[in-house]
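Lab notebook, bench 4. We co-purified these components, and the gel suggests they stay together. Before we commit to crystallization screens, I want a quick structural picture of the whole thing.
Request: model the full complex, all chains together.
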Amino acid sequence: MDSTEDDISARVLLRRVLHTELPRSPVTRSATIVRRSMRLKNTPGLESPGSALRHRLKKKLHESASLSPLPSPKRPRSTVPNTNPPVTVPSPVYDEDMTTRGLLRGIIQMETEASLLMSGQPALQASEPNPAEASMSSAGERTEGLSGVELSDLTLNTEPLTHVVRGLSRRKLQRAFSASAFEKQLDQLPEDVSHVSHKGDISEEKADASQDLDWSSGSKSGLNLTLKTPFVEKRIERVGLQRKVSNRRLPSVDAFDEAVQRCLEQGPSQDHSVFQDGKTLEDSSWQKFTLCLNDVTELYVQPKKDDTVGPSAEMERDAEYEREHELERASEIPDSGPLIQGGKDHELESQDDDEEDVVPSSQEDVFLSPEDDIVLAPTQAMTESLPESCDVELQDREFVEEVEIGNVVEIEDQKVVEIEDDSIEDENVVEDEDENVVEDEDENVVEDKDENVEEIEDENVEEIEDEEVEEVQDENVEEIEDEEVVEAKHRTENPDTSQYLERITRRAHRSEGGGSVLGIPAATRVTKSFGAGLNPREKDLLDFIDGNRDLQDFSDEEREPLGSPEFPQLHPAAELSTPEQRSQQHEASLAEEDVPELEEDDDAPEELNQSEEEEELMDSGSASQSPELPQEEEEEEEEDDDDDALSAELSMKTPAFVRQKRVFTSSIAQAMPTVLKEVNAGPATQVAKRAPRQKRQTGVDVLPKSYVMSMFKHFAKTRVASDIYPAINEILKKYFERLADDLEAYTTHAKRKTIEVEDFELLMRRQGFVTDSTPVNILIEKYLPLEYRKLLIPVASSGNKVIPKQRR
Amino acid sequence: MSKKAPRAALKLHMKKNTNIRIGKNADLMAQLNILVVLHRLAEESRVKAFEEKSATIKVHHVRAVAKKLLKSTRG
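Here is the predicted assembly.
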């Protein structure tokens, strides 16, 4: 009690001392000390007992002053008095050593020097041993400790911190060690925990406790970390890898074989491997898509390697490649390669010579590097014929075709057929062959090819082939154009999976990507129904072919009988028609199925060609396409449900890709479609599919389904039925009408003639979406994509708080 | 949210009946408005679906909500 009283008094004294000393500037120790001592002595009047204590302290301080700032009372703590001098850099601190403040400071300094986190301990310890002094000191420390700390430099504070940090670092190390050690000794964990809790409380044991803590915590953490994470991760990784690998091996063997063959054919280009992979992956349309993509890249590479054929020559090349594949399978890759190239040259020449040159040239135009393609086509055919390993039938046909037709187109068709056949090696082969023969002999070899290709695609589904034929016949000019595109695409497409995939993807795209796709190349895609998309194209082509050349008979029946003579005749027409068709098809298919088709074709050139054709069709057939668009929309909607994810993604991705390619050939292709259209106009293919679509065109305009559904799903956060779209559409329509009226009213009220942003703001306010607490800008940032946000808010960029200077 | 609504379609809608013109970025605001409304619609429908203890939003949920919503957002 006395001590307490003394303490209190001491504290008070200390405070007073501090106060009194503060104003004084630091002077030499002796002087200050003397003065302070003097003051202290002079201040005994305040409280004798306290002063007495102080005096004692001062004396002690004096004694120890020379040695170190730490006063005697702090002996227990002052384990490192010697270290004081270096620490006592700050003069003010030094001067005040004698005073309680100085003592405190010394203590602090001592503390820092002392054990890491023992900073607190010395203070505590000092206080404990010497209740009187300790109390004072502790009190002083507490009271002045803070003040001392405050007064003292930050270094003091930092020192302990650094020490603490070091300690922590050390602890971490210890933890690491301990963790490893503790891993072995799990029993210690509980003990450590207890230790931690205890030690944490006691500052004195901080050092130890910290270590223990570290150990315990470290062990725990280390255990957790070491034991769990590494093992688990590794296992997972391994597992995941294993699973993935196993999944990939699932693809059908047949496809794989085919792909292998193709790859062999394409030996030079490594892309083929990818090609194969894509083909082999028949499991999912996605895989097929990837195949297509791969193929595309491959195709591009191939042309570079083999022939510097421009991307335009996709179609032909695709066919050629396919043929090459087939050939390779039969024979050997290297042979086909050079042969192809050589053949290409020959073909080019031949093409130029023939009347067909016009057509092929047109075709070429369609394809960026027509010559190359053409050359390739024949070469492929030749190569194919050479190996003869492929379906003999096909080869024979090719030969015949080649000889008779002498057009690349033919060859391509054949090749396509062959390729398809080879790849399929099943039902389709026979069918294709037949078709090929018939087709080849018919007007448009290309068409045949397309058909074959398309048919080949159907290999997987024979039915489709039949449909194709029917569709082709049925569809009209518009379709023809589209068919051409489609067929062209088909040709290029890999017979098996690609084709199949294409259809699927196309469908998907149409259904889903229609909205987005339509927006972009409005005219390009005459949406043919999904199944019809591919098939109709073929049909269109067929019809077109028939119509063009009055060979309707051929398309179905007389194809076979038609011999070489017909071919040449057909060629020019076919060529013309084919490119047009192709373009048409492309356009039709491109819009929606660009991605899938293109991908499936695996031929960049194809895509380009298709794109070209599409573009051409777009320019020329924009009118026709517009009506088709609604059809597409319809199709899209239908198909959306089918392959929403796939198609959407594909359409999103490839369209841009494809479109770029189309740009190349657009200029050239434009000429063709016009001619083709004229020709196509003759054969009136089925318009049944298109008629309803045209009618729907105006009714579907509210907002693209994909967009609306995605937004709705996002907002709903739960699953949403897919048939909700029409209902939402209705609602939105009504809402739109009302909205327009209101806005109009607002604008008129403002005596303006244009609906402005302000009108909208007023509207939102009246609707209750915007209140005083929710400014419009917030909503803007919340809902709109960044590009739009920037438009509305002059200087809005991802949450940057910049005050817009001017509001539009 | 991060998608782009077709501005052309929106514009078309707005100008369907009248000859009034649309400001520069007013169609963006229209999109915003549509989004907000759609959002509200989805929320309400979701609630309604929950009432019927179905995890999926069905058409009748939406319809039931639509009328009330259209009335509320009159402005």
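The mean pLDDT of chain A is 52. Worth comparing against the SEC data before the next meeting. Residues 127 and 134 of chain A are 3 Å apart (CA to CA).
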